[in-house]
Amino acid sequence: MKQQFAMNIVWLLASMILYNGFTIIGVSTNVSTIPEIVNIGAIFSFKSVIGKAEKVAIEAAIEDINSNPDILRGTKLRLQMKDSNYSGFMAIVEALLFMERDTVAVIGPQSSVTDHVISHIANVLGVPLLSFSSTDPTVSNSVPNDLYQMVAIAEIIDHHEWREVIAIYEDDNHGRNGIAALGDKLAERRCRISYKARLSPDPTRDEITDVLVKVALRESRILVVHVPGSWGLTVFSVARYLGMLGTGYVWIATNWLSTILDTNSPLSQDAMDDIQGVVTLRMYTQDSELEEICV
Q: Considering the entire predicted model, what is its pTM?
């Protein structure tokens, strides 16, 4: 699903170049002065779950566009990809370097926290910043934000007449904003988050264990897990070790888990055992003319 969004973003950029015409940092794309080459930057972690899918999808979309001279009337897209290597600082630095060059748009970053910082700079310089993986409800992106899946989770909880849930999440802007959105949608249905279990970014297994022990002492057994895919499976590994995946518990994971299943399959048998019975959400992309062209 992330691959489809990545391909859609590149086609969106191509449409902007073709139909709108815009000037960014001295680069004019008006029909009267159509350039031979248009530079596009991309920033993501090459070895991450999402990054692996992104690299393939973006390269495929660029190849599709450049192989057909009728799409951009002779203009070709030149892609420059930079590996942020899981570092928000490196993503910011690479974004600034892109923006001071003849780059008409930047794809990325993956992190909603980094997206917050870079978006302000991009707005001042007039450089489009498009992200297909940042889903923070408070940031404008090209993918459905977390508000949509929080509505879906609230509907599931309300349907089963569960009134209290526990939220397990990463303690950063993305995690806090996502859980805040969930809290609002639950309140509309007279439900609530009874306990918020915060985990620091990139927590140790011991920290996850400590947090889940506290969760196990709570009354509610309905658990919503909103964490990054880079360490999300460890949460379920620890939960299984603590005996928290058995009868009486309900685990709901946001779309980070479906992304792992889509991009890293097949998982090890231990990992599959850890997530047995877990409900997860997957983004849905409607069929469109653009999708038919990409396929």
A: 0.68
Q: Which is nearest to 128 in space by CA: 6, 25, 4, 18?
A: 25
Across the chain, which has 295 residues, the per-10-residue mean pLDDT values are 54 54 45 75 81 82 86 85 82 82 80 73 78 56 72 96 97 89 96 97 95 97 94 97 95 93 88 96 69 50
pLDDT of residue 52: 78
Q: What pLDDT does 27 receive?
A: 47
202 phi-psi bin (left φ>0, alpha ψ -120 to 50, beta other): left
Strand ranges of the sheet holding 103-107, from the earlier edge strand across to the other edge: 76-83, 37-44, 103-107, 129-130
The pair of structure tokens assigned to 152 is 């879906």
* Helix or strand run (H / E) with residue 294: helix 289-294
Structure tokens given for 51: 């990054």
Q: Which residues of 252-286 are buried (b: 16+ CB within 10 A; e: fewer)?
A: bbbbbbbbbbbbeeeeeeeeeebbeebebbebeee
Query: pLDDT value at position 163?
Result: 95
Q: For residues 168 and 236, what is the distance between their CA atoms, to the nearest angstrom?
A: 11
Within 8 A by CB and 6+ apart from 69, the residues are none
End-to-end CA separation in angstroms for the chain: 13
Q: Is residue 66 classed exposed, middle or buried when 0-12, 13-18 and 19+ CB atoms within 10 A define those classes?
A: middle
Q: Which residues partner with 66 through β-bridges?
A: none
3-state secondary structure of 293: helix
Q: How many CA atoms lie within 13 A of 89 on its CB side?
A: 0
- Tokens found for residue 214: 């506290």
